[in-house]
Amino acid sequence: MNKDFEFGIKKQLITKEELHKKVKELGEKITEDFKNENEPLIIVGLLKGSIVFMADLIREIKLPLEIDFIEASSYGEGTQSSREVKILKDLRSTINGKNVLVVEDIIDSGFTLKKVLQILGSRNPKKISLCTLLDKPERREVEVNVQYVGFEIPNEFVVGYGLDFNENYRNLEYVGIAEPSVFE
Ligand code: PRP
Ligand code: MN
Ligand code: MG
User: How far, in Å, from the CA of 38 to the mean position of ligand 3?
Assistant: First the structure.
């Protein structure tokens, strides 16, 4: 087993400091946008990629809130379109009449979020908003309406700060770009 947890990282795309600054900004914006709402705010993280971002973000939202998680099936490495996304783990909370903020690490094709928004939307929340740390617009195949975006990034394979390659690298404090040799 390779003990170097940063093995194969070519460079840092977004540093720890840049992440911190952006997360603070997003938290301030969300606080501002929801401060006059009377309904409970439920922050819904998509497992597993969102957990690091979500853990930091909720501490920058200065409002009462609850957290919950949902897990959608990953469709592996295939690049075929019209991929089917299934729910592996559902929310524990009911969201009827509440404000829901879905938190994601990255939007790529958009299939995962589209499905999750469809499912949650059918449960009559007061409002569903979406916050993603990273957005890769070049890869989008289905349209998703996002209210809060941390960074738009180029079409490179990024890992760290929750994002994985084969389940590795989620614990990096920065978002990095992996060397192509890692994928071979
Ligand atoms: C990744 C990422 C997003 C999704 C984005 O999750 O965390 O959830 O893919 O891709 P899309 O926009 O093309 O649907 P993954 O399925 O790898 O699961 P993970 O979060 O557990 O790593
Ligand atoms: Mn994910
Ligand atoms: Mg993944």
Answer: 35
Neighbouring CB atoms inside 10 A of 75's CB total: 15
Q: pLDDT digit string (tens) for 139-153?
A: 999 999 999 999 999
**ipTM > 0.90 for the complex:** yes
Beta carbon of 160 within 6 Å of any ligand 1 atom: no
Distance of CA 15 to the CA centre of its chain: 17
Assessment of whether the complete model's pTM goes beyond 0.90: yes
Radius of gyration of the CA atoms of the chain, in A: 16
- For 35, residues 6+ apart whose C-beta sits below 8 A from its C-beta are 63
112 CA: nearest ligand 1 atom: 14
Spatial distance between the Cα atoms of 77 and 43, rounded to a whole number of angstroms: 28
Between the CA of 51 and the centroid of ligand 2 the distance, in Å, is 9
Strands (E), 78-147: 87-89, 99-107, 127-135
Domains identified in the chain and CATH numbers: 15-72+85-156 (3.40.50.2020)
With contact defined as beta carbons under 8 Å apart, do 112 and 129 qualify? Answer: no
Ligand 1 proximity of 110 Cβ (cutoff 6 Å): yes
